Amino acid sequence: MIVIPRNQAVYSMSPDHPPAARIASGEQVVFETSDCFGCQLTSEEQKVGAIDWERINPATGPLYVEGALPGDVLNVEILDISLADHATAVEMPGEGVYGHLPTKETTRIFPVKDGILAFNDRLTFPVEPMIGVIGVAPAEGSVLTGTPDSHGGNMDCNRICAGSTLYLPVNVPGALLAMGDLHAIMGDGEVCVCGAEISGAVTVRATVLKDCALPTPFLIREDLAAAIFSAKTMEEAARGATCRMRQFLLDFSSLPSADAGILLSLSGSLRICQAVDPMITCRMELPRRVIDALEVLLP
């Protein structure tokens, strides 16, 4: 199996990046990743303001998938996520949803052992490994890895975890898939501008889909499906995710348009993935039992 080491990293999604590796459609590959700080924070005495910000949000890759052409969809099955033995989180003035409140920088490093993150002597959490940055190259130009958009990128959706399948648009030959910014655990919103940031490795299977009408980025798991949308404002992101899921129901089921909207209002869950990046990301979720009851044929 091909392994892409963490030193094969990019800081933008771009059609101009040379591939770090190539695979045939349907093959597996391992992406070794650094944390979002580029592994620069190694003690709680260090402050994030003093690190090299040119090394923030490295994404391992990109991966060239043979046969992927513009207009196709890339099916990315997330098979496994392994984590390092510690995670890092920071709080700093001017960053996050409540960035006007902190008066000093704080760095916390949490031990991670046997699937448990120790927050302090009294509070622990089971880890819920997820991928913060995962995306493909845009059709033209360059998008920083810290920014989400229609190509994926820094969506910080905590549903993107092992056992899920993410569908991304193919904008350039080979798709040029890259990923990083793993979290041991992160709540919806990522309100202080980071989760439990951690290094690790992600095993995926990447398959090219032809003539696929899914509204990408789109996520399917055993328990739910979600349309993901990023925009400049919360309102635009919420509307975009909802409209994408409504269109999915119209394209993949026999529901009339009015029923599709009513169904979303009854059983859909509109959630904030992150509210702290240059673009805000929301998702509209539907339970798989609803989708299965509609006899939707998923790709």
Question: What this model shows, in words?
Answer:
- The protein has 299 residues and is mainly β.
- The chain has a domain of 182 residues: Jelly Rolls.
- The protein contains three helices and 23 strands.
- The strands form four sheets. The protein has a nine-stranded mixed beta sheet with strand order 1-5-19-7-16-20-21-23-22.
Poorly predicted tracts of residues = none
What would you say the CATH architecture of the domain at 2-145 and 171-208 is?
A: Sandwich
Query: What is the level 1 CATH name of the domain at 2-145 and 171-208?
Result: Mainly Beta
Fourth-tier CATH superfamily name of the domain at 2-145 and 171-208: Acetamidase/Formamidase-like domains
Distance between the termini: 25 Å
| Annotation field: number of helices | 3
Q: What is the assembly state of the chains in this entry?
A: single chain
Label the structural class.
mainly beta
Helix content: 10-25%
Radius of gyration: 19 Å
Largest sheet report = 9 strands, mixed
SSE arrangement, N to C:
EEEEEEEEEEEEEEEEEEEEEHHEEH
Strand order of the largest sheet: 1-5-19-7-16-20-21-23-22
Number of strands: 23
From the 3D structure, determine the CATH topology of the domain at 2-145 and 171-208: Jelly Rolls
Proportion of β residues?
35-45%
Mean pLDDT, rounded to whole units? 97
Tell me the overall shape.
globular
